[in-house]
């Protein structure tokens, strides 16, 4: 047989040796590569971040447990609040354990980082200027919010950024990182979000980050870091008379949740309440705002919150802005301006705030924040920021607070594989 | 010189039993003349006195006969008796057994199917090959046996008994032998659709040098199946008809009506808290159930019938060969509503073309298996006081839920290949094979009361497309014989499932899922993987004395990330046929002797096709078991996350290094054969999840993280003796020793306490330095006979605290407080037993006297711990023990009742709050060794000579008893019906005892 006759045979031999054979089309499964090919998919991913944030804050009434339920201002009808209010945070209760786990917050950061990666990879034909800025801004704001929340709950946390993944961040470092993201987000986010018809939509703006809410967040972070002057400058430069009409609230949309342990109405009267004594102590009778915020039960013993819109859990509200202005002004040395803002904020209060001094301002501010922001979960963070933990949480001495009692212990699951260790207060409670 | 005249003579060729050998080749030494025997074994040829006649036939040793008188021409051929044939199919080629350097065993299936009956060929191999441990862990018709070659090498964290399954290759084509869990619609043994009667022989490649040519799927051994083909001569038409009766074996011990009532009354009297009363059926004499004693087991288990019919026609000639066979098997189970049917057909043809330069083979195999089961698990364990379902008293009440479940597997396999002999010693073969396997499950359960029905229907489709090309060059130069093979293959396997089931049940006349809109839920899923391979093997022999072999394969799999896609699997081996050396020349008793050694690397992959690729999913179950709903403010949110934990691009093959040394001896005229092997198998990189810091957004990641070592010895002894002129005895004894040990685990070698997917810890542990899946139990130290025996902490004066903080009392189980903290808890559990068998093997005996044959097959396992979970579950009485399930007769068990009782089991107090009988009590660990006489067959062969009037050539009638007797120390029903992890599975389905009558006829 002639040699050339072998050629077709050899060709046949290699016909099936094509490497493409090894590429599998994952038919009805979604893959990371090539998935983000339309703005809608980016939007879904951004919304996914909010969904994870909802889980982090609302599952087990976490936002209250980290806030007013811990100080006892609000009673949450669960079997684990007694452990939380008595500061037994290393309890074996499954729900308390879950509250000491930071996993859900890192899910938010993971979502945001994924989204940012994919936005950076997407070319302009897929994502135009407005949407690119919006989703990027939302991702950054979500990430900033999650870091800031965690830093306020646990003190020191771990980085989930690619450049220093797993690195131990001190509280200052963590909030500085968060404020960096917030300040970039502030640049990118619009005052008002556009709906599918490209019309400004209040409904959308109320449940997603906008310039209002991210600026408040950034101001908060700067106040936490002690940069009161920066915060004051930021607030006065951003919120001017020209922007008054553009302001918006920010809250978490409750929606319908398939999970049974995420309450659909987290402030529902059946669960969240206040004794009438607490209410009278916080909101003395005669305060004109009280009736608009609380219902008193028929037996007169308990008060429950009036929820204007049960579909939204408010987190960063417009009404807090004056309080932020007041705090920033006071802490940067402008007491008079601070008093003006506080009086503006506390319209309806019986107290006369015009006589406040530097020494009495802090308590007045705390009092008003406690009244006006009830149900948004900020109480403990305010106490930490203004150094009043041991005053209002009698279970802790100053020494305890020094050792880290104001923060939450970390679950074993969170500590596993991380560079962090339990703070000395909670270590001693094991 | 005067040449002696040739005379036309007639001779006859028979086998050892006197049966004619058809188609035997008769040649005269040094002359071209030749002929073949006819149907009666007769041949006609011209011979001169002094000529040497050479008679040969496949399956027989060739015989040289010097012709002097007519009587010399009654030639009796000796069978090539070693069940192991002379030429074996090994990876991508055939090789003379003498030249094989790896550890390869082979079984002629005819020998097996003549004496045993089973649905699948794997169960027939049980006890036949050293080092191949086959365990039937259920007696259910169509159940899959567990096959472990040379020790278990699989790890899991959960209850999926991870098995190291071999690769199955039929006529050179790897077939679908299982479906990955997610895609397994039916639980039927996929391999049961191969009719054992269609199989010529089975070759098992045990060591790496033999198996490495199959690369990434070969680490657990390769089983090569060759189907029957036509042979030169008159067409062979065979019928094999058999039918048998399945008898119900010894069932669970049940106390029965009166005894049950007494026992319940006694337990109530002794332990029931104040104000607790027995269910009325035990106390109210007017209650119609009071006098009842239902034999639930008797009602649900019944003698049943097995039928098995096979027919075939095969033949061959200058054109090629053909072989067509049909089979039908109907095996009714002993349990109500269960059974297994198989319809099978196999057609294979070979055509020669271009003056035999081109050989074309086509094979079409079509089979259906139909397994009937009870949906859910039908309980055979109801209280003896409950009337049977057929009792009019309970008509229309929900005593038990009748229903049906059918698992139907359809397989169609078509393969076609062409071999072109290009030039001398050089041939090229290309083959294409298509396999289609459809699995269907339909189930429905109907309520007896409301007539509402729950229906489910599922279909799974598996497609396999395979293209293989090989080029072989095999020249012989003087004493040098070499063979070089180059090959390439590409394979794609796709699976798809669709399942629908109704959500709310409704009354129906139909057994299909057919509900009003909104009431049905369906799922579907798809998976695929492809494999691209290049391989080569080289074999060299010098003077048939010094042998050398090497092979290399590189596999690329779509299952791996692009960076880690290719694996290389090399092997080397060498052999020395030392009997051919001059110094052994005088050892006349030694017919052949070979020493061989090999070393190689092979691999395994995993079921999940997309594990390394990362399947994305929109919602996920987190550790707190919450499902994330993805809707936010009217917009659907979607954060794609990896479904199987953090994606690991570095996932790669599970690699197995295996070294093997062995020796084959054949002695005393090939009457005694001895095979020995020693091996070490190191399996590295078994897949396990390992924890991730939650800051990553994930909890776990799969890594190649665990290593397992198996070491073992294998012995095989085959003898074949003629005890007298008419009586012959042949025996095959094999036994294998294997010891396995975990050598590395993830997370710093942390112990893995296996937990079922539902979160239940079932007492198995994987620990470094110990054998796989050991029992992790509390160490029992008997029973507290006196208050003073309960240890007291000298520091605090507190008594030892029992499990779940129970206050210990006399009559309770005494567990050893391992850590001395005076509290029995999880930290007091210890490694308490090894479920991996140390010795496994089998012993077969064949006696032949004239036409009679007696065959006995037995198997054994020595050195294995098993848990009598069947008894444990029944003694574990809870508060509501009375009235639902049957009770065993407590008199048969050594149960503590009063101080001084030398009992094995503690007091049975159903109200103690803490179960007295706990899952992890080391008292339930027993010796699982057994010796089982698997089957005994008595047969008789009729020959043409005996029955000249009968219209057929051969007839054999036989009677087989299967599952004859088991000798065991184990107190449970059957030490074989135990799963790989060592827990008793007999409650699932006991093994029937079968009496089978059969006749096989050859035309």
Automatic annotation (TrEMBL), chain A:
One of its GO terms (cellular component) is cell outer membrane. Residues 83-190 form the SusD-like N-terminal domain. Keywords: Cell outer membrane, Membrane, Signal. It comes from the Bacteria. The keyword Glycoprotein does not apply. Residues 323-393 form the RagB/SusD domain. Pfam families: SusD-like_3, SusD_RagB. The keyword Chloroplast does not apply. It is found in: Cell outer membrane. PROSITE patterns: PROKAR_LIPOPROTEIN (PS51257). Belongs to the SusD family. This is SusD-like starch-binding protein associating with outer membrane. It comes from Mucilaginibacter oryzae.
Automatic annotation (TrEMBL), chain B:
InterPro entries: Beta-barrel_TonB_sf, CarboxyPept-like_regulatory, Plug_dom, Plug_dom_sf, TonB-dep_OMP_SusC/RagA, TonB-dep_OMP_SusC/RagA_CS, TonB-dep_rcpt-like. This is TonB-linked SusC/RagA family outer membrane protein. It is found in: Cell outer membrane. One of its GO terms (cellular component) is cell outer membrane. Its main location: membrane. Keywords: Cell outer membrane, Membrane, Transmembrane, Transmembrane beta strand, Transport. Pfam families: CarbopepD_reg_2, Plug. SUPFAM superfamilies: Carboxypeptidase regulatory domain-like, Porins. The keyword Membrane applies. It comes from Mucilaginibacter oryzae.
């Amino acid at each position: 047989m002639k040699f050339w006759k072998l050629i077709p045979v050899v060709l046949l031999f290699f016909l099936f040796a094509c490497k493409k054979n090894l590429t599998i089309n994952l038919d009805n499964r979604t893959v990371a590569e090539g998935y983000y090919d339309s703005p809608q998919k980016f939007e879904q991913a951004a919304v996914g971040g909010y969904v994870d944030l909802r889980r982090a804050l609302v599952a087990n009434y976490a936002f209250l447990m980290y806030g007013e339920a811990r100080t006892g201002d609000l009673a949450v009808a669960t079997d684990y609040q007694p452990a939380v209010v008595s500061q037994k945070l290393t309890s074996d209760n499954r729900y308390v354990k879950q509250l000491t786990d930071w996993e859900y917050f890192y899910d938010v950061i993971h979502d945001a980082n994924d989204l940012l990666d994919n936005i950076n990879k997407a070319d302009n034909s897929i994502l135009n200027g407005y949407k690119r800025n919006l989703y990027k801004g939302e991702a950054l704001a979500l990430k900033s919010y999650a870091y800031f929340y965690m830093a306020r709950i646990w003190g020191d946390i771990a980085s989930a950024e690619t450049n220093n993944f797993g690195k131990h961040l001190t509280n200052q470092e963590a909030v500085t990182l968060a404020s960096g993201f917030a300040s970039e987000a502030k640049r990118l986010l619009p005052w008002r979000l556009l709906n599918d018809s490209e019309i400004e939509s209040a409904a959308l703006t109320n449940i997603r980050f906008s310039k209002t809410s991210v600026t408040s967040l950034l101001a908060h972070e700067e106040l936490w870091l002690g940069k009161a002057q920066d915060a004051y400058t930021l607030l006065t430069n951003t919120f001017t008379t020209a922007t008054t009409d553009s302001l918006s609230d920010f809250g978490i949309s409750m929606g319908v949740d398939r999970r049974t342990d995420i309450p659909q109405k987290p402030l529902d009267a059946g669960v969240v309440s206040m004794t009438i004594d607490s209410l009278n102590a916080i909101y003395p009778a005669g305060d004109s705002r009280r009736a608009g915020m609380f219902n008193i039960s028929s037996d007169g013993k308990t008060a429950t919150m009036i929820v204007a819109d049960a579909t939204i859990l408010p987190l960063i509200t417009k009404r807090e802005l004056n309080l932020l202005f007041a705090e920033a002004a006071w802490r940067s040395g402008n007491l008079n301006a601070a008093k003006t803002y506080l009086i503006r904020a506390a319209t309806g209060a019986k107290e006369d705030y015009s006589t406040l001094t530097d020494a009495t301002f802090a308590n007045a501010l705390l009092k008003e924040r406690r009244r006006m922001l009830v149900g948004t979960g900020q109480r403990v963070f305010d106490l930490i920021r203004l150094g009043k933990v041991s005053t209002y949480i009698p279970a802790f001495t100053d020494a305890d607070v020094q050792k880290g009692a104001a923060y939450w212990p970390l679950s074993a699951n969170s500590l596993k594989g991380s560079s962090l260790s339990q703070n000395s207060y909670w270590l001693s409670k094991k | 010189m005067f040449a002696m005249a040739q005379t036309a003579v007639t001779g006859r060729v028979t086998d050892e039993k006197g049966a004619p050998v058809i188609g035997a080749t008769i040649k005269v030494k040094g002359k071209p003349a030749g002929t073949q025997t006819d149907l009666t074994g007769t041949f006609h040829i011209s011979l001169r006195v002094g000529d040497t006649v050479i008679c040969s036939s496949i399956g027989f040793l060739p015989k040289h006969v010097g012709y002097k008188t007519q009587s010399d021409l009654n030639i009796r051929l000796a069978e090539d008796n070693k069940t192991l044939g002379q030429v074996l199919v090994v990876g991508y080629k055939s090789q003379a057994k003498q030249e094989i350097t790896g550890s390869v065993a082979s079984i002629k299936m005819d020998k097996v199917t003549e004496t045993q009956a089973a649905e699948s060929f794997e169960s027939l191999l049980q006890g036949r090959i050293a080092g191949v441990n086959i365990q039937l862990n259920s007696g259910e018709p169509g159940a899959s046996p567990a096959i472990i070659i040379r020790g278990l090498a699989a790890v899991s964290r959960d209850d999926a008994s991870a098995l190291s399954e071999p690769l199955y290759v039929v006529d050179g084509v790897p077939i679908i032998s299982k479906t990955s869990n997610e895609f397994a619609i039916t639980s039927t043994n996929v391999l049961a659709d191969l009719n054992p009667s269609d199989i010529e022989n089975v070759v098992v490649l045990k060591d790496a040098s033999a198996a490495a040519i199959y690369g990434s799927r070969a680490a657990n051994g390769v089983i090569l199946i060759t189907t029957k083909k036509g042979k030169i001569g008159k067409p062979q038409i065979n019928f094999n008809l058999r039918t048998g009766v399945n008898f119900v074996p010894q069932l669970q011990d049940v106390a029965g009506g009166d005894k049950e009532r007494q026992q319940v009354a006694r337990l109530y009297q002794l332990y029931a808290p104040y104000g607790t009363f027995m269910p009325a059926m035990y106390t109210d004499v007017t209650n119609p159930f009071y006098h009842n004693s239902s034999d639930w087991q008797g009602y649900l288990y019944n003698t049943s019938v097995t039928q098995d019919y096979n027919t075939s026609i095969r033949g061959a000639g200058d054109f090629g060969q053909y072989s067509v066979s049909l089979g039908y098997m109907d095996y009714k189970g002993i349990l109500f509503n269960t059974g297994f049917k198989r319809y099978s057909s196999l057609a294979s043809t070979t055509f020669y073309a271009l003056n035999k330069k081109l050989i074309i083979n086509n094979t079409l195999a079509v089979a259906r298996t139909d397994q009937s089961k009870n949906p859910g698990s039908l309980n055979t364990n109801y209280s003896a006081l409950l009337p049977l379902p057929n009792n009019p008293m309970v008509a229309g009440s929900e005593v038990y839920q009748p229903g049906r479940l059918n698992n139907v597997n359809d397989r169609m396999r078509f393969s076609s290949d062409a071999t072109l002999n290009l030039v001398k010693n050089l041939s090229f073969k290309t083959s294409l094979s298509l396999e289609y396997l459809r699995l269907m499950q339909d189930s429905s359960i109907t309520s007896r009361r409301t007539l509402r029905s729950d229906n489910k229907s599922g279909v799974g489709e598996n497609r396999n497309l395979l293209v293989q090309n090989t080029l072989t060059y095999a020249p012989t130069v003087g004493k040098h014989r070499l063979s070089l093979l180059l090959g390439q293959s590409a394979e794609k396997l796709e699976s798809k499932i669709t399942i629908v089931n109704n959500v709310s049940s409704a009354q129906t006349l139909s057994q299909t899922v057919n509900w009003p809109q909104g009431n049905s839920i369906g799922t579907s899923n798809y998976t695929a993987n492809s494999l691209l391979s290049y391989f080569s093997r080289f074999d060299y022999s010098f003077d048939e004395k010094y042998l050398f072999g090497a092979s290399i394969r590189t596999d690329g799999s779509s299952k791996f990330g692009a960076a880690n896609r290719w694996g290389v699997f090399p092997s080397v081996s060498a052999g020395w046929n030392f009997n051919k050396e001059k110094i052994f020349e005088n050892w006349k008793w030694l017919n052949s002797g070979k020493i061989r050694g090999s070393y190689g690397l092979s691999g395994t992959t995993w079921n999940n096709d997309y594990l390394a690729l990362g399947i994305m999913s929109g919602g996920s179950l987190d550790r707190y078991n919450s499902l994330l709903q993805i809707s936010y403010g009217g917009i659907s949110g979607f954060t794609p996350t990896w479904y199987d934990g953090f994606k690991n691009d570095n996932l790669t093959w599970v690699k197995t290094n295996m070294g093997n040394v062995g020796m084959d001896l054949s002695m005393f005229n090939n009457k005694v054969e001895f095979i020995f092997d020693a091996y070490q198998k190191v399996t590295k990189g078994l897949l396990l999840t390992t924890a991730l810091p939650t800051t990553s957004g994930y909890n776990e990641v799969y890594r190649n993280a665990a290593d397992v070592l198996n070491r073992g010895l294998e012995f095989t002894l085959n003898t074949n003796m003629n005890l007298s002129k008419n009586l012959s005895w042949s025996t095959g004894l094999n036994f294998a020793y294997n010891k396995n040990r975990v050598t590395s685990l993830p997370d710093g070698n942390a112990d893995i306490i296996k937990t079922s997917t539902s979160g239940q810890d079932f007492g198995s542990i994987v620990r470094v330095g110990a054998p796989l899946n050991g029992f992790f139990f509390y160490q029992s130290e008997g029973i507290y006979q006196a208050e003073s025996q309960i240890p007291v902490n000298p520091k605090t004066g507190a008594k030892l605290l029992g499990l779940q903080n129970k206050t210990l009392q006399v009559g309770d189980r005494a567990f050893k407080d391992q850590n001395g903290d005076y509290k029995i808890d999880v930290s007091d559990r210890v490694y308490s037993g090894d479920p991996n068998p140390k010795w496994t093997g089998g012993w077969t005996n064949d006696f032949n006297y004239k036409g009679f044959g007696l065959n006995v097959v037995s198997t054994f396992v020595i050195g294995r711990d098993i848990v009598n979970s069947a008894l444990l579950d029944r003694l574990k009485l809870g508060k509501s023990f009375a009235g639902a399930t049957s009770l065993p007769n407590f008199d048969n068990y050594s149960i503590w009742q009063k101080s001084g009782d030398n009992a094995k089991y503690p007091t049975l107090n159903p109200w103690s709050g803490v179960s007295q009988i706990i899952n992890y009590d080391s008292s339930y660990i027993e010796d699982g060794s057994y010796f089982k006489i698997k089957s005994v067959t008595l047969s008789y062969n009729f020959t043409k000579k005996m029955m000249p009037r009968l219209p057929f050539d051969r007839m054999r009638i036989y009677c087989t008893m299967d599952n004859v007797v088991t000798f065991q120390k184990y107190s449970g029903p059957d030490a074989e019906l135990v799963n790989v992890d060592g827990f008793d599975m007999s409650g699932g389905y006991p093994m029937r005892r079968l009496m089978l009558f059969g006749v096989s006829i050859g035309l």
